[in-house]
Amino acid sequence: MKLDAKVPEGPIGEKWTKYKSSVPLVNPANKRSLEIIVVGTGLAGASAAASLAEMGYKVKTFCFQDSPRRAHSIAAQGGINAAKNYQNDGDSTYRLFYDTIKGGDYRAREANVHRLAEVSANIIDQCVAQGVPFARDYGGMLRNRSFGGTQVQRTFYAAGQTGQQLLLGAYSALERQIGKGSVVNYSRHEMLDVVKIDGKARGIIARNLITGELERHFGHAVLLCTGGYGNVFYLSTNAMGSNVTAAWKAHKQGALFANPCFTQIHPTCIPVSGDHQSKLTLMSESLRNDGRIWVPKQKDDKRAANDIPEEERDYYLERRYPAFGNLVPRDIASRAAKERCDAGYGVGATKMAVYLDFKSNLINKYGRAEATKLGIENPDLDTLIRLGKEVVKEEYGNLFDMYKQITGEDPYEVPMMIYPAVHYTMGGVWVDYNLMTTVPGLYCLGEANFSDHGANRLGASALMQGLSDGYFVIPYTIGAYLSAEIKTKAIPTDHEAFVEAEKATRERIEKLLNIKGKQSPESFHKRLGKIMWEKCGMARNEKGLKEAIAEIQALKKEFWSDLRVLGDIDGFNPELDKAGRVADFIELGELMCIDALNRNESCGGHFREEYQEDGGEAMRDDENYMYVAAWEHKGESQWELHKEELKYENIKIAQRNYK
């Protein structure tokens, strides 16, 4: 199989503009006879469905939640990037493009990233028009704050709930189309297979999670907008229902899976507190803008944070990376925290945490500025703290409240304790410039695809990609395919391909139920997560990855021989739903380890311990690994590697340097 990314010819700044002007179109009358299935209703799915329905297509949406607005996009906190240069600090489309390529350690496709940077400004205008309540300054202008991996302020935000507000905007647009009858929404439905006819995606098999009924749905095209696969690690910042099943079913139907080992560990999460936990909680990266990360200079220091004097604190990110300080990219900040804890400088009960302290900026940045505005000369410390708290509460209040509710400690009074945790997956289904997979008619948008972030995603770029794909990319690119499908009539769902797909899906469900072993789906998921975190997590090595592959293969054999699923095939059965998702996670985990073992280099979130420079920095191998690793499923525990060569014609390739 030869991969064709279908990148348009011409200078990079003109590719998207020329593409939009020359892509085949579907006239309004023909759009009304074309049906599109959208699986997933987060930012990518809701924005795509609303936009396509507004254009005149007939759209069906599917989500496993009870409402589209419960998609995991709602959990995003810190902000969304856009190259508007409101701060007049030197930002531009090119700088956002450059920062994203560099932040991804030169493992992303240039053309897709530049398009993302180009449309970023349109996203903000779209969302403002929808009424998204972005933060504004005193004069009414939209505010920006800093995020990791950049030296400009380009992140637009709505307190610490940006994802929620953006999703409400997209959800409102979607609900408008549902109200008009242009979109039919199927909540509490999970896609369990892609139906192909003559090699093209022509629909899906979905399970009604309330009744247990399997349903057949036709579409001229199918869009997967189902998010990332971080829950393969069991503990992550993802919602507990987030899974890889839809993407994995597409993979087994011929869609290549790209760079699966590129997973992101977020540096500012509430640390693990015990085996009882089923998920982890993110503290927004925006907090690194106003907080300072440190550990005691003394090993195994048992003193309370506030009892450790300034001169005995090691602000290790500021020490190692003076140019970026606390705002280095996520992979670098995460590894630095792990290194300090592994060396014996960790804090808290488990010693697997570092401090994120707001006192300095609370007093000196915000407190003094407020005192000056109020005309208070020589304010005392209590006044500075009181005034600074009011500003910080306005910026980050919901995050501070969340931290206190979970830990019982007041971050206004004591530093937060944080530690890295699985957050985002840069890998995903391979797509070309049109966002189409290697299965004609099957598209993949947002975090579910691999296309825009390389080996590491910069903070506040996930929301940008999801809305870019849904609002501004797929409405154009899908015309390149559907313009040739206008003569294709709706295919009845009693077609042989639908019947066979439903039969295969039912047989797999029955197989899960009929094992009748002794272990729950949850227990297998926990064991898989432990293997993945310890041997394919923040650091990997050849020995550990080979062990992990063998352990996962053994776990898979045990799963299919000793799984116990309670309940019946008919009706509401979340244990059955979980079992199917865990089965897919086990297969994915095996491929992730194979991919990590194949890539004999360190880049971004993929850190092979054998490949590092002095000081622990990642050592890339551009000569041998400057490609997208796209894996084709060839059978049980078998994959074939296809390579998409990455060419950089507009950026000088260099080792990342944030010092």
Describe it for me?
It is a single chain. By secondary structure, the protein is an alpha+beta fold. It is built from 18 helices and 19 strands. The radius of gyration is 24 Å and the shape is globular. The mean pLDDT is 96.
Helix and strand topology:
Elements: H1 12-22, H2 28-31, E1 35-39, H3 43-55, E2 58-62, E3 80-81, H4 93-103, H5 110-130, E4 155-156, H6 162-180, E5 183-186, E6 189-197, E7 200-208, E8 214-218, E9 221-224, H7 245-252, E10 257-258, E11 263-269, H8 287-290, E12 292-296, E13 313-314, H9 316-320, H10 330-345, E14 354-357, H11 359-373, H12 381-407, E15 416-425, E16 428-429, E17 442-444, H13 462-482, H14 496-514, H15 521-536, H16 542-562, H17 574-598, H18 622-625, E18 627-635, E19 638-645
Radius of gyration from the CA trace? 24 Å
Low-confidence stretches: none
Q: Helix coverage percent of residues?
A: 25-40%
Placed side by side, the strands forming the largest sheet appear as 5-2-1-9-17
Our measurement of the CA-to-CA distance between the termini, rounded to an integer number of angstroms, reads 42 Å
Q: Tell me, briefly, the overall form.
A: globular
Number of helices: 18
- Secondary-structure-derived class: alpha+beta
Short description:
With 659 residues, the protein is of the alpha+beta class.
Keywords summarizing the entry:
about 650 residues, alpha+beta, 5-stranded parallel beta sheet, 18 helices, 19 strands, about 40% helix
